[in-house]
Amino acid sequence: MEQSVSGIVCFTSFSYAYLPRARVLAQTLRQAQPDWRIWGLLVDKSPPGFTDLDAFVDFDSVIDAEELTLPRFRPWIFKHNVVEACTAVKAAMMQYLFRMGAEKVIYFDPDIAVFHSLAPLEETLGTAAIVLTPHQTAPDTDPAALRDNEMTALRFGICNLGFIAVRNDEVGQEFAEWWAGLLREACYEEPTATGRFTDQRYCDLLPALFDRVAIERDPGWNVARWNLSWRQIRVLPSGAILANDSPLRFYHFSKSGGASDVMTDRYAGDNYEVLEI
Q1: What does the pLDDT look like over 185-229, one tens digit per residue?
Q2: What is the Cα–Cα distance from 104 to 164, expressed in whole angstroms?
Q3: Which of 10, 108, 149, 169 reaches 20 to 30 Å from 129, CA-CA?
């Protein structure tokens, strides 16, 4: 039986392998927005011997993706790798929270950490139905940066769907249904073969298909390796962290510890505060 919720509900979708990162997201989000509800969506089963009953203490609720009652869930989810699986259930979870009464639903990837209040988002969602953050919000001029950033965005998506915020109104519900249908049909990492990259390329269409789509251009939102070429991180004596001159709302550690570290090193340069984060 579905619970009842209200107000702003945030969620993240993850596997047990990503649980430590998801906990950091939940802890930092709780510090920044103690009045928001935080949900976790698990796409796999607990590993043998897993007994950490405190692992989910930072979440208000954690559910198994099977509880979303998607048709033929097990054979369907088995067709996806872990990143695809975590992405493919995002829209269905948003619909689930809408049905429960959430007024505004915000998705975060589990490899995000929040550093400042996200309260401005409440005001944006007062009028907007959907809020997105582009990979870049300023043009690069260096040829290498153009290849790494603009050209890559054309292959993988203009906006980063590690974050999306949607209002539970007619437009938001219409979008969630459309999104859920696409993810049910094809949520795969195939940028070369089919031009798809999980859900990101689909959402390039949002400003054309739906009303009241807001593009958050503030440099403090969704800072990551793909926009470090022009976002300068500074830590003030007070401990506050800025991106350019704006509060760093959240940093996206996408694929950190792997190939993405090359991009981080390349574009952070002598901005050592990035490495401190």
Answers
A1: 999 988 877 888 899 999 999 999 999 999 999 999 999 999 999
A2: 11
A3: 149
User: Using H for helix, E for strand and C for coil, what is the string for the chain?
Assistant: CCCCCCCEEEEEEECHHHHHHHHHHHHHHHHHCCCCEEEEEECCCCCCCCCCCCCCCCCCEEEEHHHHCCCCHHHHHCCCCHHHHHHHCHHHHHHHHHHHCCCEEEEECCCEEECCCCCHHHHHCCCCCEEECECCCCCCCCHHHHHHHHHHHHHHCCECCCEEEEECCHHHHHHHHHHHHHHHHCCCEECCCCCEECCCCHHHHHHHHCCCEEECCCCCCCECHHHCCCCCEEECCCCCEEECCEECCEEECCCCCCCHHHHHHHHHCCCCHHHHC
Q: CA-CA-CA-CA torsion for 59, 169, 222, 39, nearest 10 degrees?
A: 10
Domain that holds residue 36: 8-220
Its pTM surpasses 0.85: yes
CATH number, domain of 137, equals: 3.90.550
Residue 272 located in a structural domain:
no
Residue 262: inside a domain: no
Question: Could you tell me if 263 and 269 are in contact, meaning their C-beta atoms sit under 8 angstroms apart?
Answer: no
Would you say residue 86 lies in a domain?
Answer: yes
Q: For 145-170, what is each residue's pLDDT tens digit? A: 888 888 888 888 999 999 999 999 99
Q: How many domains does the chain have?
A: 1
